[in-house]
Amino acid sequence: MILVAEPEEAVRESIQIILREEGCNCHAVGDCTSLLRAIRIHESCLIIADIHIVYDNVGEILAALTHYATIPPLLIMVSYERMGDMLYLMKFGITEYLIKPFTFEELLEHIQKTIIPKPNTPI
Fold first, then answer.
1. Which residues on neighbouring strands pair with residue 54, listed in sequence order?
2. What gap in Å lies between CA 8 and CA 101, rounded to an integer?
3. pTM for this model (two decimals)
4. Of the candidates 11, 7, 96, which has an alpha carbon nearest to the alpha carbon of residue 46?
5. Using CA of residue 33, residue 22, residue 106, residue 68, what is the dihedral sign?
6. Distance between CA atoms of residues 43 and 21, nearest Å
7. pLDDT tens profile 30-54
8. H, E, C per residue of 39-102
9. pLDDT tens for residues 81-102?
């Protein structure tokens, strides 16, 4: 399952529709409280989250993920204006990001790149 955390309802719903059309099981939320609840309920292979949801809550989000056998990658959606904030998140090991605005093709390509193991990487 892919977990999507996006505060803008139209963007959240669009991402959810595209993922489902591609055959992905997904769950979408609009705020950090809902994201933390979803992390505890759903076993996710990927979390796609807007930087506005993650930035002030990164420690709490990463702590919630500790019950997973393997912590899923976090793909952060970020605008050019907030790219500097990615440096802060990188201190926590969050290195995957997608710059807004993006096309759905770019999103799907990035998802595929993020969740498919790279060569010589243990599964």
1. none
2. 13
3. 0.89
4. 96
5. positive
6. 21
7. 999 999 999 999 999 999 999 999 9
8. HHHCCCCEEEEEHHHHHHHHHHHHHHHHHCCCCCCEEEEEEHHHHHHHHHHHCCCCCEEEEECC
9. 998 999 999 999 998 999 999 9
Domain ranges of the chain: 2-115
- At 1, list the tokens: 């399952």
Query: Which class is 2-115 in CATH?
Result: alpha beta
What's the length of the chain? 123
How does pLDDT run across 99-121, given as a tens digit for each residue?
A: 999 999 999 999 998 886 545 44
Give bridge partners of residue 76 from the DSSP assignment: 49, 97
Sheet of 26-29, strands arranged across? 26-29, 2-5, 46-50, 74-79, 96-100
